[in-house]
Design a protein that fits this description.
Blueprint lengths: L2 H11 L25 E2 L12 H13 L6 H4 L5 H9 L10 E3 L3 H15 L6 E5 L4 H14 L2 E5 L4 H4 L4 E7 L11 H10 L3 E5 L18 E4 L14 E4 L43 H10 L8 H22 L6 E2 L11 E5 L3 H10 L2 E2 L1 E3 L3 E5 L7 H15 L1
Parallel strand pairs: 1-11, 3-4, 3-5, 5-6, 6-7
Antiparallel strand pairs: 2-8, 7-8, 9-10, 10-13, 12-13
Bound molecules: pyridoxal-5'-phosphate (PLP).
Length: 403
């Protein structure tokens, strides 16, 4: 056994989160290259299935829908699911209850958050800033939100941001972790800079929620959105969420004021009156099957400390980098994820010209990461179910594949 294999075993043995892996549908950590489950390093795209979710979804379908039918809106708690599940996500992003609703996609929530933020700002603030390195959907939606509200849109990198704010800036949309490089941006400092400039801070938490502490309330974030199918393991297309800070909720003027956000939804009033609180972020009838699959999936967090998750995430990514440098000829792969812990999310991105082909070969060997155009290999490390032996083996296979 190599030194790194021995070290991986030791690290697994000392890992307080190791027992959480059995809550997921994944094989036991194994060194067998023929292992059918392989090594899953793509939880930053689609989280693995929590083992108890299929039975819970079957109950929702067979009993709640099949037997109780319409009664389930009330008796099975369907109607209140968006805010109830929002409160379940809240501690994972550092929010007190009553500030998050679940529903729609991240893209739709970006739209709600941006238009609402612009409507909260003074009229003479006629520009919207967007993260120039953002996941594309946020940029497309920001462009449309700016056009609809008659604001100018300016793209700036998070590093340029403090100097780019002006008295005309209404709101700024930033990604907490860069989807391509895995770079973690300084949410407390950037939020403070945005506030010092008199603007509102809107954060996209897709690549941070469930991977590291976010501290929305602590850092005074105004609005935030995120998906639930990555580190929150809600399943393919599971609904996203919208956070609106308590103090701003009365001023949250939704651009999509559907009947689910009405103060009296069953009053069927022809004129709109918004519900109080986070409920204003709701739109139409929620997608109950996905939503209740997510609610069940969130139970894997019971008893899990986010501090332990962050510590393990950094240990996993450090160990991966160490193994890659031992197993791969120098210069073959360029790491584009920052070395510094304060700047690292929970993924490692490695650049090489033939990344697309390399990823195909890795997947054929049971190591599942993903490829981002044009030359990035992305590996996501979900601390709830990735172990150190997985990491060592993935780096070893990578070394063989690129050789
Ligand atoms: C940062 C970020 N924002 C938004 C999205 C996608 O949004 P949606 O859930 O609307 O597809 C992703 C998807 O990976 C993402 O990484």
């Amino acid at each position: 056994m190599s030194d790194l294999t021995l070290l991986a075993e030791k690290l697994d043995a000392a890992d307080e989160l190791a027992p959480v892996r059995s809550r997921f549908v994944l094989g036991p950590a194994s060194d067998d290259p023929a292992d059918a489950e392989g090594i899953y390093l793509d939880g930053n795209s689609l989280g693995a299935l929590p083992a108890h979710v299929p039975d819970r979804v079957a109950d929702v379908v067979r009993r709640q829908w099949g037997e109780l039918r319409i009664r389930s809106w009330d008796e099975s708690g369907w109607w209140t699911a968006p805010e109830r599940i929002g409160d379940r996500i809240a501690p994972l992003v550092g929010a007190a209850p009553g500030q998050i609703v679940v529903g729609d996609s991240t893209s739709v929530n970006v739209f709600k958050a941006l238009v609402a933020a612009i409507r909260m700002a003074d009229d003479d603030r006629d520009e919207l800033l967007v993260d120039a390195t953002t996941f594309p959907t946020d940029g497309y939606i920001a462009e449309s939100a700016a056009r609809l509200t008659g604001r100018a849109l300016r793209a700036v990198t998070p590093t340029e941001l403090p100097g780019a704010l002006t008295g005309r800036t209404a709101a700024v949309l930033l990604n907490h972790v860069d989807y391509r490089t895995g770079r973690l941006h300084d949410l407390p400092a950037l939020t403070a800079a945005i506030h010092a400039g008199g603007a509102l801070a809107v954060w996209d938490l897709c690549h941070s929620a469930g991977a590291l502490p976010v501290g929305l309330d602590e850092h005074g974030v105004d609005l935030a959105v995120g998906c639930t199918y990555k580190y929150l393991n809600g399943g393919p297309g599971s609904p996203a969420y919208l956070y609106v800070r308590h103090e701003l909720q009365d001023r949250f003027d939704s651009p999509l004021p559907g009947w689910n956000s009405h103060a009296d939804p069953f009053g069927m009033d022809p004129s709109y009156a918004p519900a109080p609180g986070a409920l204003r972020g709701r739109v139409g009838t929620p997608d109950i099957l996905s939503m209740l699959a997510l609610e069940a999936a969130l139970e894997v967090w019971d008893g899990v400390s986010l501090a332990a998750v962050r510590a393990k995430s950094l240990a996993l990514t450090d160990f991966f980098l160490r193994c890659v440098s031992e197993y791969t000829e120098p210069g073959r792969l360029e790491c584009v994820t920052p070395e510094r812990h304060e700047e690292r999310g929970s993924q490692i991105a490695l650049r090489c010209a033939d990344a697309g082909e390399i990823m195909k070969r890795l997947i054929a060997r049971g190591v599942v990461g993903d490829f981002r155009h044009p030359d990035v290999l992305r590996f996501g490390f979900t601390p709830l179910y990735v172990g150190f032996r997985d990491v060592e083996r993935a780096a070893r296979v990578l070394g063989e594949v690129v050789a």
